[in-house]
Amino acid sequence: MKAHRKKKLITILSSLVLLSTAVGLLLYAIGDYADAFYEPSRVVNGDAPLNKTIRVGGLVTTGSVKRAKDSLYVEFDITDNQEVITITFDKSLPDLFREGQGIMAEGKLVDSKTLKATKVLAKHDEKYMPPEIAETLKKSHKDGVKKMEQQGEKQKGSY
Amino acid sequence: MANSSMSSWRWFHQLGSPKWFYQKSAKWLPWLWAITTMLLAFGLYYSLYASPVDYQQGNSVRIMYIHVPAAALSMVGYLSMAVCAVIGLVWKMKMSFMAMRAIAPIGALFTLITLFTGSLWGLPTWGTWWEWDARMTSELVLLFLYLGFIALHSSFSDRNKADRSAAILAIVGAINVPIIYGSVKWWNTLHQAYSVTKKGAIAPEMQTPLFIMIGAFYLLFAIMVIVRLRLEIINREAKSKWLQAEITL
Amino acid sequence: MTLQEFFAMGNHGFYVWWSYGLTLLVIVLLFIGFAWYKKQLLNKIKSFKREIGQKARSVKTEKISD
Hints:
The complex is a heterotrimer.
Chain A: H1 3-35, E1 37-38, H2 40-44, E2 54-60, E3 66-67, E4 74-79, E5 84-89, E6 102-111, E7 114-122, H3 131-158
Parallel strand pairs in A: 1-2, 5-7
Antiparallel strand pairs in A: 2-4, 2-6, 3-4, 4-5, 6-7
Chain B: H1 10-15, H2 18-50, H3 64-91, H4 94-125, H5 134-154, H6 159-173, H7 176-186, H8 204-236, H9 241-246
Helix pairs in contact in B: 2-8, 3-4, 3-6, 3-8, 4-5, 4-8, 5-6, 5-7
Chain C: H1 3-8, H2 13-65
């Protein structure tokens, strides 16, 4: 084979490899990534395999976060509003981790209700604002709820 | 050169002339640099100092002011490359192919910036520097497309063949851009949904620096493309008399 | 805000400054790359011009010697 032909062939082959790697990555992301995802209720039902790395997503239940005093170890519950499972984790949690926040834990199931996580990811909700505004929003929300409750009581009283 | 009776198309014909562009762009560049430097100075002052921290993310929200503009340009860059490819193939305009070749490394650069700022932002906020979710994977594919384009183009010794083959890759690969854009809507991704122009999603005191930085990055992109395109013109017109007269050695 | 606080960025200094710093670095590297490429191209044109000059001269001397 002539030198320039060989060079051309190598080029075409390598660009094909590059392109198919790219497409492969994309398919992998869309397919496999979603496959290993389970909601807490499916875990409790026994749909998720033990001893295999899986991902579980849900909201951190309020008041469930227990931190160890002298290490990073932490335990908390997550829920999909149907079932609750416990996550244990011994590395530092992401900034967005807090009660009520949507999180995703990756790791292996210890039993049908406990996951030993190797990774805990927090999902962001596409809202960006300074803390003072967040505080005001929270307060006005609370006030609004209170007002509605009061109105509700008034209505009840009038009946 | 341009047909004076078709004055509405004159700019198109002028842009199609390497000589015209080479001479004019030398006059544009100082102005572009001046405006860009000013915008960047403003943008950096706001994004690093004069804007508030986020109620959940704290100071790491400041990464947004370079991550979002870079991400926007990584996609805009690829689309403009594909548009140049179409114009070059259909109208056989050589300047269009030169522009296409000039955009590729710059688009790759902005894609790279998008990826590493995303990692540096994701590590503290999400808890991971990389996840194989659809948004991040498709952005990585974009980087491969840019690099593949450059590799394919430089592998031909015949420039016409190089232009045409690379143009086809640019056009076919453009399908990835709407995939990147829509990925956060279509699939369950770790990456949050689109919020740049969504009402109420970003507080106004954060939107101002973001828009300034987007503007500055667009101008920076324009400067980079013009500088690279001038080099491409030198490369391809090396044997023409006007260029040799233009360059004092 | 003190200068120290500004650089610390809460506890996010590492992430923020690396993001901005690396971005600056790759942009500077791009322009250095452009300058290097320009030098190469000008060298190419230089040697190209020299070749033409030599050819022209050799044609002249041939004519004189005839």
